[in-house]
Amino acid sequence: MFFVTLTTFIDKYLRIQAGMYDCNAAIALCPEFSQAHSQLGFIFSVTGKFQEAVDAYNEAARLDPDNTAYVQLIRAARVRLNLPPLQGEDQGRE
Fold first, then answer.
1. What's this model's pTM, rounded to 2 decimal places?
2. N or C end of the chain, less CB within 10 A?
3. Distance (Å, rounded) from C-alpha 5 to C-alpha 30?
């Protein structure tokens, strides 16, 4: 059982590393590719690096301000960091 768990862990770790490598390579080739920044933010989120996720999602939103999904991703990562709501959000909602 130990070897199955270890193998699964190594497989997931290598996939995450490959994903980070791919995102960084895409960003190096085309820094304005917002989806690469968003995918990098997702990888940071699933690995618990929420501040890095917020930074990556912010860059994606800066590059593609019409994509409202990026705002939702920023909001979710900020919640995990216990940060206040984004400026201009309605704080009185229930």
1. 0.80
2. C
3. 37
Looking at residue 63, its amino acid is L
Domain ranges of the chain: 2-80
Nearest to 72 by CA among 38, 47, 46, 48: 38
**Contact by Cβ (8 Å): 57, 74:** yes
Residue 36 neighbours by CB under 8 Å, 6+ apart: 23, 26, 27, 30
CATH architecture of 2-80: Alpha Horseshoe (1.25)
The amino acid at residue 56 is A
Q: φ and ψ at 17, to 5 degrees?
A: -60, -40
pLDDT digits (tens, 9 = 90+) for 28-78: 999 999 999 999 999 999 999 999 999 999 999 999 999 999 999 999 999
